[in-house]
Each structure stands twice: as structure tokens, then as C-alpha cells.
Amino acid sequence: MEKVIKGHVWKYGDDINTDVIFPGKYTYTVNDPVEMGEKALEDLDADFVGKVKPGDVIIAGKNFGCGSSREQAAVCIRVKGIGAVIASSFSRIYFRNGVNVGLPLITSCEVQNAFEHGDEIEIDFEKGEIRGKNGVFTFPPFNDFFFGIIKAGGLIPYTRKRLGI
Amino acid sequence: MPKTFSEKILAKYSGKSEVVPGEIVEVTPDVAMSHDNTAAISKTFAKIGVDKLFDPDIHVIVLDHCVPAANATFAQNHKDIREFVKKQGIKNFYDINNGICHQVLAENGHCLPGSVMTGSDSHTTTYGAFGAFAAGVTRSETAVIMATGKIWFRVPETMRIQLTGQFNSGVYVKDLALAIMGKIRADGALYRAVEFDGSAAHKFSVSERLTLCNMAVEMGAKAGYVPPDETIYDFLKGIAKREYEPVFSDEGCEYIETLDMNLGELEPMIACPHTVDNVKPVSEVSGENVEQVFVGSCSNARLDDLAILAHVLRNRKIDSDTRLIVIPASSRVMIDAMRLGYIDTVLSAGGTIATPGCGPCMGNHMGVPASGEKTLSTSNRNFKGRMGNPESEVFLASPHTAAVTAVTGKISDPGEIPVDWEMINEELSNAVLSPVITR
Ligand code: SF4
Predict the structure, then answer these.
(1) How many domains does chain B have?
(2) pTM of model > 0.90
(3) What are B160-195's pLDDT values in tens digits?
(4) How far is CA B389 from CA A112, B361, B363, B364, B385, in A?
(5) Domain of B170?
(6) What is the ipTM of this complex?
């Protein structure tokens, strides 16, 4: 994982549920991560899949990822290159899923008003800084444990590494 | 410094002298539950590349989400799980003849005060009824527990809900849970442990505590908890799977929020489509036609729930345009209900009984509603499509409201057909209940 990511902002509202992040109808039929990426945000933003670039960042309001516990909802945006999601809060299981698939999740209530859809954004994970045209915002740097999992690319590769496999 | 129950349990299990909210700890749970999703979990486990489970004895597997199998895919799932269980030497395996996972774990003494429990199911919070720290985890995480015995937790802040007073007739724990939900909403307890305490909490039966902690997850909670007491210790006598040591919050510990609820001020409540926190008093929606009533799920399908149902239905018929599907939470509940004549009453009134398990709660089988139909359910979720058809609507309420609604065919206030709760309690405490059955 990069220490600093740079991209553009995809901005959404409160209570973005796992059904609009990854539609329930695909949960048992789409198993390949790349294919999962092609369904990302299908019912929320039709432009997303075609235009998202590696390093882009999602900024949302409260309770991001509420609803079902499906892991695909974290995988699908990760494989499309989303470098981080910033939200004022995450649903508990989404937070776990995010960490476990290696998707950096940042809880911040300050940046929502400082960024518009499409703005440039830069995140420095080591320093805990979010930079944009309206200034620099800080967040508590990731705990070493999470950082370890995210750097390894998720919980399964992390576990393999730990077990020396 | 005074600590909350979850801070104390998590410190103990992670080998630290103390932990603070927000801290990440790694622990080995006493129990890791999984159900029909064990097929998928075992495939992830295989990907990790370890041959043998870290400790087969911490895993408890229950087949319940689609039992007996509805089609070849579910049947294959079950077959894969049985093979995995054999190969790995998992002793705590409950096949399709037992009931809903959460009920089966409770009945068989797996849920113990002061323990750490995980489950690949969001309603794992249910076990907090016994004073355990119990949280839902993901499938991959259960696979990692299989390989390493370890799981990470963020130490939660704790919210205290102080319960006082007494329910008016026709009002139950389910109404209380719905009322709390309406108040704090579905994210009101996000990341938090919720501690239900106060004089009223300690008067609740095991079944009532299970309903309350079951619903905690719908408030966003990581764990629910009722401080254990004699009610729990008595229940566990002779069935506890291990020795246990209860853990309590210290006097003067820090709660992030405290909420007071007076049970005497509550009225029957109902969650309307399509969110659990879209809660209204039953009186506001009464009169609405429903085509189906479902009394089942890990929320409300225990013996006391079926007793209320049977007392309403005795010498009555359900409405001719309404179906009533009753699924006892476990085979043990079903045997007891049979001996007490409740099953006879339900069938004679025109209801249907199905195999103990989840049934239509999450729309796998046995009572999926048709498009345009409304269902009143005693379960815990009413998201669009939850019961298997996005074109149908689901309302959530107590077994008493459900029973009266089945008789009238319209959402009805339980007061229309009152039951004598004292008498029911008496009937249940005098009954000789069946011993735990397991195979
Ligand atoms: S009864 Fe419903 S809520 Fe409970 S475990 Fe089964 S599917 Fe989940």
C-alpha cells in the first residue's frame, strides 16, 4: 500500500447501504473480485465504474456501509482502485470488512464540507493528513495493527504471512 | 479506574491489565459459532493453507438457515459442512434437527457469563443475555479463527440502558426493544456495547433477555449485555459446557450515554416497512390488512412466545384470508409446546407449523410472501426483500400483537384479545419441561 495517495473525490450522502454499494442480487452469482468491481455502486452512481481511477477517494456522511454484512461491498470498491473511504461514521461490520480486505477507512466529520465531487485530494497515511484546496485536515494515524493488515492487502494474506505460509 | 464489563472481559482475554475504548485487542474466543455459512467459511479456511483447526472445540456449528434443505444447492452446502465437521473432528455440531443457532447455543449451555463469543451472524449479540461478550464477525474472520484461534476487536464504548417499572398488559420486551429503536434509531448504538440494567432487567426471564440482546444489533450495537444473576445461574445448572466466572461493570465506570426507560410508560409498538427503526405505536397502524403472520425467529419463538400465541388462539379460528406460520425456535421448544397443547391449539385454529429453524425470516423458504402481500412477523428485520420478496412488506411486532392480528386479519392492538400473563407464567413454571435434546 502507498503511504500517500492522490486522486479525485467521489462524494455521497448519509446511510449509503451495502445494497447500493454492491447489489444483493449479485451476492451468490458474482464471485470474481474483478467482476465485483464492475458492479460497484451500480444503483447509486452509474458513472462510477467507468470513470473511477486508482487513488480516488470516497467521501460520505454517517453510517456508511449499513445493511448486510457482505464482504463484496468492501471488495468491489477496493478493486476499482479506491484508495480510502472517509465518512463521519461506518457501520460496524463494514468497518471490519474494510480493514479485512485492505481498504483504508477514515472517520472524519470535518472534510465533508471542504470537498466537492471531483475535487483533488491527497491523503498521507503516515502523517494522518488529508489535503485539498480548502486546507489540511488531520486524522489519528492508523493503529499499527490495522496498518499491518492493510499493508499486507487484507486479513487473509496477513494471516498467511503471520503463519509463515 | 472503574471499568465496564466489556473493558474488563477484553482486558482479561487479551492478557492486559487494562484496556480503554478505541484500543485494538486480539483475543481467543471461547466459542466461535457459524451456521449454514460454514460451507463458505471452510473454503476461505482452505485458502489460508492450514490443514487442521487451531482448536476444534471452540467451534459450534448449527445447521438452521435452510433446514431441511430447500434445493440441491442448500443440500450440497449441508453435505460439505458435514464432511468438514467430520474431517476436522468438530464435536459441537448440531444438524438440521435442532433449531435456530442462537437458541440452540443458549439451550445447550454454550453461552456463559464472562466469556467471549463470536458468531458469523449479526444476531450473535443475543448471547449477552447470559452476560457474555458476544459479537458478530465476518465469514473471513471465522476462517481466521479456525486457522489461528485469534480475532481482533476494537474495545467499545458502553451505553447503559436503565430499565425500571413494569409492563402494562399487552406490552412485552419486544415492544421495549422497538421503542428503544424508535428513540435512538438504527445507528444509535453504533460500535457500542449496550448494557441493559436496572431493577426491571433483573426481573426478566432468560427468554426475555435473549429477545432484548437479540435486538441490540438492530440499534447498531457490537454487543448487548444483561448483568448475570440467579436467573442465569439457575438456568445453567447442569448444562453449562464449562466453568465460568461472571464479569460485571465496576461501580462508577464511564458510560458514553445513559438512557432511562420506564416500562410502565410503554405501549405496544410495531416497526413498519422497510426499516427496523420506522417504529410506531400499534394503534397508529391498526386496521391494516395482512395476508400472513409469522411467529418465529431467534427474536420471539420460544415457549413463552408460543404460550401467548396459544392463549390468544384457544377456541378461536384465524381469519380466513390470513395465513399463520409458526416455527418454534428449537426442537426442544417444539416438544414442550406440544406437551402443553400449544401446537394442537395453533393447528386447530388454522395455523401452520414448520420445522424448527430460521424458516422465512431471511427469505430462504417456508413462507416467502407473494408480491403486494403484507406480513406481520415476530422476527427482527424488515428490510426490503428480507423475507425473500422485495415487492412485499414486513411489519415487526410482539407475539401477542401477531396472534391477535392472525385472528382479525388486520394489524390489531393486543388489547383486543387480552391474555393473563400471570396465568401463563404459572403454567410454564409448573410444567415439566423436556431435557436438552442433542444428537
Ligand atoms: S432466525 Fe432470522 S435473524 Fe435469527 S439467525 Fe435465523 S435468519 Fe438470522
Answers:
(1) 2
(2) yes
(3) 999 999 999 999 999 999 999 999 998 899 889 999
(4) 36, 11, 7, 10, 5
(5) 23-262
(6) 0.89
